């Protein structure tokens, strides 16, 4: 099978169906851009989990004068109660789980509160005595936070014990929903791209049905007949997938690194190196979808 002849047939088909080819390129581009965004979002979630879960703290909130929980008596936690919590955290049973433990009194908590809510009117109405004195605990293994919660939550003067990972789980759940939504949209768009590729190939084959019949009668192989049509679909899909790879890289370069990284410097975002990993995946996905759709579309014309 001479490649030059096969390629000339493919180019001829592309010229005849230029408008459909452009449609295939655009649909492939949009669908694979969604695929790339979904992959990058999963990479981002993985990075954020690894970073924030290791830094998630257990917070032990002491009673204030306005608390009425079971372990609070409507009075501020006393020095003895605070010391009792410190002793419990320093005990051999718990100290082996704790990497670091710090205590913030009312004034320290209030200073941090004012810093975080400096542009919020609520900061003008909050006084130090309304804020809980707090123990902040970093664990060697964040998965063992239940040990701290069970040991400290029932002590007198302790209002509550909170594992910050529960808040992170909610955030990551929302991000996963967004990622799965992008994947669902991408799947729908890929199906649309496959159908459009199949339609394009069928139109191209229909316009040359007499030529195909003659080729079959003179003994042309199925492979020789199929290849030009498969190349048509693959060519359009490759252009669309390359554009999707470029778009994915641009999103990371100019939006994620250029905007989000500047706005949220404490967060480790995905970089252009991740986008360069995703781009070949998009190209391969485009080729596979196009090749399968083209082969299915042309199969009916391989019979005389």
Structure description:
The chain has 304 residues and is α+β, with helices and mostly antiparallel strands. The chain has two domains: 187 residues, no CATH class; 111 residues, 2-Layer Sandwich (Alpha-Beta Plaits). The protein is 68% helix and 8% strand. Strands 2-3-1-4 form a four-stranded antiparallel β-sheet. Helix 2 crosses helix 9, helix 7 runs parallel beside helix 10 and helix 9 runs antiparallel to helix 10. It is elongated and about 100 Å long. The two termini are 21 Å apart. The mean pLDDT is 80. Belongs to the ABC-4 integral membrane protein family. FtsX subfamily. One of its GO terms (cellular component) is plasma membrane. It is a multi-pass membrane protein. This is Cell division protein FtsX. Part of the ABC transporter FtsEX involved in cellular division.
Span between N and C termini?
21 Å
Number of helices: 10
Mean pLDDT: 80
Percent helix among the residues? 55-70%
Q: Give, in spatial order, the strands making up the sheet with the most strands.
A: 2-3-1-4
Transmembrane segments: 21-45, 177-201, 229-256, 276-298
Subunit structure: Forms a membrane-associated complex with FtsE.
Membrane topology: Multi-pass membrane protein
Main location: membrane
Question: Which helices and strands occur, and which strands form pairs?
Answer:
Elements (H helix, E strand, L loop, with lengths): L2 H14 L1 H38 L2 E5 L16 H12 L1 H4 L2 E7 L1 H11 L17 E6 L5 H8 L5 E6 L1 H43 L1 H9 L4 H42 L8 H27 L6
Antiparallel strand pairs: 1-3, 1-4, 2-3
